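Collaboration report, partner site 2.

Our partner group contributed sequences for two proteins of shared interest, and the home lab folded both. The records are reproduced in the order in which they were received, starting with the first partner submission.
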Amino acid sequence: MKKIAVVAANGKEGRLITEEAVKRGFDVTAVVRSENRTAAQNVLQKDLFDLTAEDLKGFDAVVDAFGAWTEKTLPQHSTSLEHLCDSLSGTDTRLLIVGGAGSLYVNPEHTACVMDGPDFPDSFKPLASAMGKALGELRGRNDVRWTYISPAADFQADGERTGEYILGGEELTLNERGESVISYADYAVAMVDEIENGEHIQQRISVVRK
């Protein structure tokens, strides 16, 4: 049985990842700041920034579902990830990050990203930039068994769970209908699949609806 912790489990994606993992028989600990609202069997009520190496000891994987949205808190994408990496440094525990799509490349040379495009909404650029910066810093961590999972460009909170998806890499991937879309529910399926069977250590992967 896989033993995992989901950090920021009360969030929309965190709850779905927790639910998916519990359904598959995982032993799941929800790491939450407030009252647990997930299906997890175990709860650790603690702020992410207060977590210690001892708190995260013994897990097969830690899922980072943390999110920050305001101008003041956007830098926490970097600081929170650094804190989790420091806490897991040198261990066998995997760290899987709920990432963003803005940093996916749109050319084979990997010199242009989704967020660089003329159609990318200005309102999302600060968030995409903050998450892209955090990913760049993560790439320098050779002491952690991390995997960064980017969703499709259209990440649908209330989309249906089909249980099917296409696994991509560093570049924006389109399905056969020319779409870059995935639901939160199918993203959760992909995340748990990666914990269960994936071996994308120190790699960024991406997922899109089949």
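Second partner submission, folded after the first:
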Amino acid sequence: MPHKKLVAHVLGICTALFLLFIHVPLSKASSHVGAATSTPISVYGAWQCSNDGCLWGTVRSVTEFDSKNHWLIDRGDGVPSVNLVVLSFVQPLKLLNKTTDAQTTQGLPIGMTADIVNYFKSHNIRVMLSIGGITYVSAWNQALATNPTQLGLNAAAVAQQLGVGIEIDYEESSSPNLTGLQAFIDAYRSMEPYDATGSNPAARLTIDLAAGDRWLIGLTTKATTSWLTTSTPVLDYANAMVPSRQPSSASSAEANWQEHIDGKPQYSPPIPPLAPAKLTGGLYITSANGAVQPECYHFSGSLIDTTGSYVHSVAPNGAGTTSGMLGYMFWAAECPSARGTCTTPPNSCEGGVGVGGQTYTIPVPMPQLRQG
């Protein structure tokens, strides 16, 4: 009889181990993902390029704009697909000089009207304006070399006027003017101090960094060291932008984002780690050549789906105390390129971005952001 008890005991252990195995997803095996901690996503946004390749060079009626972009405010159940829209782009030198020309009024593209801003805000979607982009690197350099303090003051005035936040998209890879950018930030913060509550839209000031730590190195080093700390934050968070093309797998996308969270201690000077709570990850919904991506129209199996566990649960690695990134940003709504397909009917993104927002129970309006 003792041998029967022994057999039963061994079988019990095997059964327990089997049940444990089948209830632990393989994706949780990564050392970067906290198995016991999953934090809700707070930021789930889209860069919005209007209908002319991000120029915003024409005034549009709300009715016409809605006919192209209704999916952003309604994913099919009356709830917005996103909780943030970033109108892209403001030309920095024109903003500094308060230029008025055929496509610009007092430094702001004429298409970025209060009506368009309020179209989103009336549906509890936070709005920001992005200054720069890859097309305007030279304009950033000229503006920062001329009067970065005035540029920061002008940006704050626009933010206050429209009730929006500001995103810094300065993609100078070789020798960024970090002294000038510091002066810009200081001037902006003199008008709109850092607001941890997030209740003041104009106080929201963010920055775009590369997909990982191997491009925009000077900017990333300065931003991570000086502006994105959890102890004395200056900027609210950073967006890890999309790479040159859509990552081929979840692991490829996650590897880029992990570089920010790990930092690069081997660099000189080193890039310190970034708290996951200070980072969003970018994915394409329209590609660089204008093709609509599966992430736009189909959630299941898309990168929004397959990176979800990582984004919810990635653990800090030297900075911050809470697990999980802030969320996702999608490039880009409507027509980011003069060629190719736009995210307009019949190619709108309810089925991908919208279903993702529903699946992950994205809060609308955006909640107060974690500070560490």
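Feedback sent to the partner group on the second submission included the following. Confidence is low (pLDDT under 50) at residues 1-36. The domain at 39-359 is CATH 3.20.20.80 (TIM Barrel).
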